[in-house]
Each structure stands twice: as structure tokens, then as C-alpha cells.
Design goal:
The protein is 74% helix and 0% strand. Helix 7 crosses helix 9 and helix 8 packs across helix 9.
Length: 175
């Protein structure tokens, strides 16, 4: 029960009586994000302070009002453009090239994959290790179980074969 005389005392009493339950409710609404839950509770209590009729309520309806406001704050946050547009990550996204055609990039990827499938298994394995997985000659040799000199030789001949396959695919596509 709130038995205070001025708005500051009413707000403090409202906080003391309802904040722990409101915070627990807000933690659930924010999927366990305690920081966001604290922000929701603060915003809810700020709105209660701005609405003096809530502060003066003598019954339990103040708690219902607080919980409703907290739920609406979380819903509004999810709906806002700020929430959708802001993605926090620890990785820098790849820079996009101005004017880059994503459809052409997909076609190029398909053409290269088709050409790779036309190579022998040994040549394809060396190219996958060295170019797609970024392995050094020594790492590729260890993974494939062949000498480093063989990796170099196969890489040379695999690139020549890949170039020929790409030229053939390009010529047959545009004729």
C-alpha cells in the first residue's frame, strides 16, 4: 500500500513496492537480457512519474498498470526501426564493391564450381586445399599425404586445366 504525501515519496514507495517484481517480469520479456530489463524498468517508472494518477492509486491496479506499460515498452522496442537496423557483432562485414552485381557473382561461382568438377580428383583436392581453404603448400601436403613438390606440380597443372575448362565453358556459353 502506498501511503505517501508528495509525488517523490509516492514514486519511491511505488518503486520499493513494485520494482523487484517488475524487474523479474522485464527480464522474462527481454529473454534474460538484464541490461535491457533494467532499462525497461526505468522507463516504466519514469512513465509512472509522468502520470500522477498511477502514483496515487491505493489498490493493486498500479502493479497491473506497470506490467502493462513494461510489456508495451518491450513490444515497441521490437517494432522500432532502430531495433531491426542495429546488429552488434565482433566481426567486420566484407566491404561491398560499389556497383557489384550479385547475380553475376552467383553465376561466376556456378561456372567455377562446374569447371572444378571437370578436373581430376587429385587436381581438385589440391586447389580446394590451397585456394579455398587457404592452406600453405606444406599444410596441403600434410593434409593430402603427398610431398610438397607434388602439391606445387599439381597446383600448376590444376590451374592450367581449370583455365582451359573455364575458357571452354565461356566459349560454349556465348556462342
Amino acid at each position: 500500500m502506498l501511503l505517501a504525501t508528495n509525488d517523490d515519496e509516492l514514486l519511491r514507495a511505488l518503486h520499493d513496492e513494485h520494482a523487484p517484481a517488475l524487474w523479474s517480469y522485464a527480464v522474462g520479456l527481454t529473454n534474460g537480457d538484464r541490461s535491457r530489463a533494467q532499462d525497461v524498468v526505468q522507463e516504466t517508472l519514469l512513465r509512472a512519474w509522468r502520470n500522477p494518477s498511477v502514483l496515487a492509486q491505493q489498490q493493486g491496479s498500479a502493479r497491473a498498470w506497470l506490467f502493462t506499460v513494461a510489456r508495451r515498452i518491450v513490444i515497441d522496442e521490437w517494432r522500432s526501426a532502430r531495433r531491426r537496423g542495429e546488429i552488434i557483432t565482433d566481426q567486420v562485414p566484407e566491404p561491398s564493391v560499389p556497383g557489384e552485381d550479385l547475380a553475376q557473382r552467383a553465376v561466376d561461382r556456378h561456372v567455377v564450381m562446374t569447371a572444378l568438377l571437370g578436373l581430376s580428383a587429385e587436381h581438385r583436392a589440391v586447389l580446394v586445399e590451397c585456394y579455398f581453404r587457404g592452406a600453405s603448400v606444406a599444410e596441403a601436403a600434410a593434409r593430402l599425404g603427398i610431398p610438397p613438390g607434388t602439391v606445387k606440380s599439381r597446383t600448376h597443372y590444376a590451374l592450367r586445366a581449370l583455365r582451359l575448362a573455364l575458357e571452354e565453358n565461356t566459349e560454349s556459353t556465348y556462342q
